[in-house]
Amino acid sequence: MEKEKLDVEPFDEYLVHLKIERDLADNSVASYRRDLQKYIDFLEAEKVFIWDEIDRYNIVLFLQRMREEGKSENSIIRMTSSLRQFHQFLRQEKITENDPMQYVETPKKAEVLPKVLSMKEVERLLETPDVETEIGLRDRAILEVMYATGLRISELVHLEMDELHLTMGFIQTVGKGNKERILPIGGEAITWLNEYLADGRPIFESRASEESPYVFLNARGKGLTRQGVWKNLKKIVQQAGIKQNVSPHMLRHSFATHLLENGADLRIVQELLGHSDISTTQIYTHITKARMKDVYDQYHPRALKEEEQ
Q1: Is 176 a catalytic residue?
Q2: Handedness of CA 271, 273, 276, 277 (dihedral sign)
Q3: Catalytic: 284?
Q4: pTM to 2 decimals?
Q5: For residues 201 and 34, what is the distance between their CA atoms, to the nearest angstrom?
Q6: Distance CA 49, CA 6 (A)
Q7: Is 201 marked active-site?
């Protein structure tokens, strides 16, 4: 006897809706697919085979199972959001009349401040690659561009030659949701990019079997991967003597934080980072407040430490 299953046609329709109507990137659609497939597998294991029969109890039990499996609170929050949007779609499309998510609360997200490098640490990091070599020249250009523009790692590795407009002082990039951004790039980063394009990239390009459109190439002349950038960064951090566990995203966090610390407007930083919602950018104001207090405690003559009182 064939095992009973949920009708997955609404699930497939929803993924098409995300791709076509909401214009989500492939990575985002794949993330929704993974989340919802886990949910469907759970429902079938619980012998729920009709969309209309799903109730609040099924949802709560599913989220509880995730906790028992050791999933983080952020993963559960993301799953809750995915289920909420999916069930709203089912109702809008009249696939079901009920919305079991209506009475399920989204867990509160624990606010974790992103880690950032100090300006001195950034300077030390940028100055570490050996620019007498083509690899070092490329790595210096990568670090300068990331810190100058706040590019995501995926945006950096997919940056193409025709997206550079260095004489005009800006670059183009396509970020999340296929949204294009025009980003200013400072003189220091332009200088190192030009050095790399003149003396580094041609060496890598000469080793390739075919021409690559990407700005940053590996030693074989192919486009760098995210893993490749991460691996190189770890080596540079170690050479620089920086004790923090530095990720490419930490340079993006540092870019935003240092702009705000030096008086940049929050809306401008939002545009530069490509955040669709300013609430995402506001996390950096919390960092600057925390750092401001540290500086105050360290340098103000009246900010006596407890042990001094």
Answers
A1: yes
A2: negative
A3: yes
A4: 0.63
A5: 38
A6: 4
A7: no
